[in-house]
Amino acid sequence: MKKTEDANLNEMLLLKRQKLDELKKEGKDPFVNETYDVTAHSVGIKEEFNEADEREVSIAGRIMSKRRHGKICFLDLRDSEGNIQVFARKDVLEDKYEDVKGIDIGDIVGVKGIVFKTEAGEITVRATDITLLSKSLQILPEKFHGLKDPDLRYRQRYVDLIVNPEVKDVFIKRNKIIKKIREFLDKKDFLEVETPILGTVAGGANARPFYTHHNTLDIDMQLRIANELFLKRLIVGGFDKVYEMGKMFRNEGMDTRHNPEFTNIELYQAYVDYEEMMRITEDLFEFVALEVLGTDTINYQGTEICLKAPWKRITMIDAVKKYADVDFNEIDTDEKAREIAREKGIEVHENDTWGKLLSEMFEEFCEEHLVEPTFVIGHPVDVSPLAKRNPKDPRLTQRFEAFINTWEFANAFSELNDPIDQRQRFEAQVAEKAAGDDEAHPMDSDFINAIEVGLPPTGGLGIGVDRMIVLLTDQPSIRDVLLFPTMKPIGAENQKIQPSLDDEE
Predict the structure, then answer these.
(1) What is the 3-state secondary structure (H, E, C) of 402-451?
(2) Is the C-alpha dihedral spanning 96, 101, 102, 108 positive or negative?
(3) Phi-psi category of 239—alpha, beta or left, where left has phi over 0 and alpha has psi -120 to 50?
(4) What three-state secondary structure class fits 486?
(5) Which of 263-277, 351-365, 483-497 has the lowest mean pLDDT?
(6) How far is CA 108 from CA 83, 136, 196, 299, 302, in A?
(7) Residue 175's closest CA among 479, 465, 375?
(8) For residue range 357-395, what is the model confidence (pLDDT) as tens digits?
(9) What superfamily in CATH does domain 166-311+372-481 come from?
(10) Fold (CATH) for 2-139
């Protein structure tokens, strides 16, 4: 069966190339066309249709289906907005009708004609001229089953967008979400800036970076894992409100919520703390949902979630007490924390501290319960090297993570601006890296120098933009909101799109 399918595919591909050769011999090479005057698009034509007005239009797009009945032919043309039917008659097109007969599904054509409504009630363009603008030499997946294999859809997004037009709507909505994020922050007088993607120290988060080499300087460099440290340098320099939305790169695992290259936004505001960052977070999500979706209550994969501010709050210690039945307020040593963690089935290492084990128990037992928007506050210093300590409990920091649908969407601090404390925390992170923690934060001496110059009290916030888009577009995976997600290369012979089963006369 497979050999028969391959033979049919090869025959169809060969036929397309033979048609192209014939066109070239006839002086009709479709690839020499440079411009085509497009005056209308499918959706606009349908919305503006008036039976009393014989409107002449010029449209262009890809042929998705073709039906011939003797001396007439119906073509289904898809442009950037949608589909529209084209009606071609031999007595109108004359010699050009032979060209229409040779058009294949997948070819790109330009059509001039008059808009009318058929007896079946379908708004259609009656062609007075049809021009082949580009010849498709591949075979589109057949229309009834489309392109369903997720792996192939991600690898060949260009085909996915053609045969699954609803996918385009996701990326149009992505664009709107990003615009509304910027609109929200611009209205609050935040200044959008750009900071380096390449650097010699990838800091601002606990993650494994990608490495590269700069030949001229002959130095190893890293792609940024966060833009936090540069943005805080700008607060030192005198900007009171800054943000940057852009690509980050982390050399770590991939799943439905993680891609090595992802879009993140970080913002910093002088003279406020993490309480203000909580207000910005909940207001931003509510604003974007209302603006893009028209509601602050969404349905994600069957779960109804209300994004309206204010959101719930819980401390990490209280969450672990509630969901793991362990009260870390009653644990006063690292040894006791390790003992209880082992009893709970947590993998414990010799140097694990009270704070690190509190964080791990939260991840293990609590995150799965945080469906409604919730701020988790009171993170341990041990896992928060850039956050200001809580003056009432120096083991903890003024930090929060925002959870929705059990996922972390935002991370924020009252930023640590004590350079002595910051250096000590970096040194502790360097020791952890030396002990084998690849994701420990590196030492950044220039950043220490910057906050020695003086960092005012500052609130900082980071939000995973791709995850936010996944949530607001009701998509199952981060790959469904990335036009070209990271994929492991495979042989070209395994990437061929499936043949069409449409019958052409």
Answers:
(1) EEECCEEEEEEEEECCCHHHHHHHHHHHHHHHHCCCCCCCCCCHHHHHHH
(2) positive
(3) beta
(4) coil
(5) 483-497
(6) 13, 7, 41, 38, 39
(7) 465
(8) 999 999 999 999 999 999 999 999 999 989 999 999 999
(9) Bira Bifunctional Protein; Domain 2 (3.30.930.10)
(10) OB fold (Dihydrolipoamide Acetyltransferase, E2P) (2.40.50)
